[in-house]
């Protein structure tokens, strides 16, 4: 089978990691429950930043957020390695800026994710991401972003929502933890 994965906030805890960096840089100590209650992808609001200030801060810290110690979600690496060992194809489709493509791919490899260079897509807008997902003929696709998930439906593609506080309004299959993938796949075989 062909499996497609978004990266940020699907396989790695990018926003959670960025939230800790914001706390440090802004000399704040906002608790985890503040982060867990966010209803937006953007994380700047609890810090009292405007949209413009939030975007500027993210862009200023992008290097540190993307390429330092951002942790994969528990069992994400192991789950994808197991899929690869079982002979499944693994595709990564991320809307991260294209100039970060090669470094992102190398960073993912360093974290232990099974990455084939020809199955790594980076640097597209959401509508372009949807087109790539459809053209690849994936069996499963995992993402967190409502703007992408809302536009994927129909056909044989099985779309799975990687649970986040800002996407709980979406209907459909949901993954809370990567250990749940085996159960989800066993329901496919029935």
UniProtKB/TrEMBL annotation:
> What Gene3D superfamilies is this protein classified in?
HAD superfamily/HAD-like
Which superkingdom, per the lineage? Bacteria
The answer to whether UniProt assigns keyword Lipoprotein to this entry is: no
Which Pfam families does this one have? NT5C (PF06941)
What keywords are assigned to this protein?
Hydrolase
According to its UniProt record, this protein's enzyme class is hydrolase
Q: Which residues form a coiled coil?
A: none
Give the EC number: 3.1.3.-
Protein family (similarity comment): Belongs to the 5'(3')-deoxyribonucleotidase family.
* Entries under PANTHER family matching the protein: NUCLEOTIDASE YQFW-RELATED
In Swiss-Prot or TrEMBL terms, this protein is called Nucleotidase
Q: Which species does this protein come from?
A: Fictibacillus fluitans
